[in-house]
Amino acid sequence: MNAEKALKTLEYDKILDMLKCNVSSERAREIIDGIRPTENADDARALLSETEEADRILYEQALDPNFAIDNILSSIERARKLSSLSMAELLRISRVLKVSRILKNTMSRSIDAEILKGYSAGLFTNQALEERIDKSIVSDTEMSDDASPALRQIRIKIRRTNDNVKQKLSSYVTQGKYQKYLQDNIVTMRGDRYVIPVKAEFKGAMQGLVHDQSASGQTLFIEPIAVVELNNELKTLLLEEQSEIERILAELTSSVRADSSELLGNYEIIARLDVIFARAKLARSQNAVKPLINDNGYVNIVNGRHPLIDKSKVRPISIYLGKTFDIMLITGPNAGGKTVTLKLVGILEAMGLSGMFIPAGADSEISVFENMFTDIGDEQSIEQSLSTFSGHMTNIVSFINRITPKTLLLLDELGSGTDPSEGSALAVAITKEIKKTGAKAIITSHFNALKEYAVSTDGVGSSCMDFNADTFEPLYKLIIGSTGTSNAIQIAKRLGLKQEIIDDADSMLSEENKSFDKVLMSAEKARKTAEELTEQAKINKIETEKELKRVQDELKKLRENNDRLNEQIRKDTKKLIESSVCEANDIIEEMKNLLDRRDEQALFEARKLKKRLENLSAKYEEGDFDAGFDSNLNFVGGEIKAGDDVYIDTIDKTGKVLSVSKNGEFEVLLGAVRTKVKAKNCKKIAPNKKTPPRINVSKQFSSAPVKSEIILLGKTVDEAVYELDKYLYEASRANLSEVRVVHGKATGALRAGVQKFLKTHPLVEEFRLGKYGEGDSGVTVVKLK
Fold first, then answer.
1. N or C: which end of the chain has fewer CB within 10 A?
2. pLDDT confidence of 513, banded at 50, 70, 90?
3. In the prediction, which pLDDT does 496 show?
4. Cα 502 to Cα 467, 496, 512, 515, distances in angstroms
5. What count of Cα atoms within 13 Å lies in the side-chain half-sphere of residue 494?
6. pTM over 0.90
7. How far is Cα 460 from Cα 454, in angstroms, rounded to an integer?
8. What's the chain's average pLDDT?
9. DSSP symbols for 614-638
10. 317-321 sheet: strands from edge to edge
11. Residue 262 burial by CB count (10 A; 0-12/13-18/19+): exposed, middle or buried?
């Protein structure tokens, strides 16, 4: 994109500086200096996809690749020229190899990052050379003893010779006959020779070589003749050590030279990945999103935030361009945010087309452009003898003939800095020329002529920076579709300018200007009123929807409670019926036994049993199975006491209060079920006078032939017990002495339940499991009384 001057105006370099703060290598910082927005949509999408993959690796997969490497370009160049590398240079080479190896391994574990995995797959690894350098070199200035066997042997000899020299010299220091000759009882070094400090007046008494003297001349540093040979031997060993070190360095350099092309490739790949991950880190720090990219000139910034303004102070701005209109005019008071909006569009365009996410809302979209031209700020130049107006015009002239449909223009205060009538005419004329080219432009202005042109011309949009109509304070919000006033006199008044000056200025305004501003102010107030009404309607709609949902949830809860209670009533009623059937069977059996007796006592007992059956039958009324809501309920007031009929609103049922507890709860009989209900959920009703028909419970015996076995496979314990009880009475009546109960093996639960029931049955004398051939443990054989 042709946009160097525009990028400077937009302070794009500061964005690059922010990006540099997230990289680890010098080469990555060099690459960042060269980043410029692309004019190819596919290239922009590819760059953004790289950033997206890096974000995924860093923050979803919690992988944190290391890119910290040193500059190795000069070292590789020296190695290619057959120079031996220093230990420090070799360590830097080793670090590049190590980072390459670890980075390649880290990236291979990443998921859904095919682009970056492809880059890292090209990294060259040579772990053998890496480990050889690390084993041989301890620091920038020290070679390890393990660098070679020869070096180890040489250093052993050096240490042994050193000890011999020190031991010999120590004898001079410790022996009494030499004490008077010595200035100090120490062994020191001058150059690379061990010496002792001797008083100058005893020079002749100590045979040896003088290597140095003190500044005062009072002390001579003499190498005793007895250790000269040892020092010579030490000197020779040190030369051998240096020679071996140089040989090792040359050998390692040769290995580096062989891999020099691959190492340079690694250097570039690591730096490139460093930049990509820096873009992802910057995006997270700015809470930025991946913008959509198009090549049709459409720009849609949703809640964009200028990245160079403090996060706590920046105001989000939404603006779009390139569909219904190609030119957007922004009007409104000074210091309202017009220039910031211009720069926001430009800097977000530059960031997105450079592969960086933009600090804006989701679904934000930017377009690629061939050119971006700006005219923002004071263009005056003392060196070129240009005034503010001349500076602006010179700048506009420099690009006006280069505008194409693929150009984005950002023009601030077009035509300002000169006579307002001539400036406004120029502004309108330039805007018309831009419109002819089909370029996209955002223009700020205070000129009424330009406002009128925007309102009356198709393809030109109008917008204004919002402000408080009462205080005239800026709200830093862009209102698209509205035209604003400058409010210069009102702002001056708010800032404290004397009232007489304000009045004088107001009196000098033409009636035409005042009328135009009044129309705009009236339109703005009408817009604000409509906006407030719309916002209130939205709030009302939301509250209504919340209330509707609350009612629906409450209704659903009531229905669920009702269903649960009905289910519990059905279960409890079934248990009561089963229990009562058993009791009825016992009564019938007792009555059968009484038939064989003819005395008065038997008659008396028979009447008692008959009464028990009548009482048992009276328990079950039709209403017991449906305590539902009756639309004819007669609600009455007053205190609810035991015995009162009540309606329970939480479950939509009626019942009778049995008792009232101290904590305000009622014990209520619902059909045949007792339950606890809170007093606030009960409403007293008049007693129901209807007498529902009774359902008599009696035992029915079948006249069909009775088999000697019953099959209970697949039934629950309750179902099996019910069927078995009925069968045993029928078998007894048919005079069967022994029957088989087939319950199966399975888990044994059904067998256990059946046998528990048989233990207490009045007709069962004994029972046992089936034998081999009878069904084994899947059958129980029952002997009847």
1. C
2. low
3. 72
4. 20, 10, 19, 18
5. 14
6. no
7. 5
8. 83
9. HHHHHT-BGGGG-----TT--B--S
10. 292-294, 365-367, 299-304, 317-321
11. middle
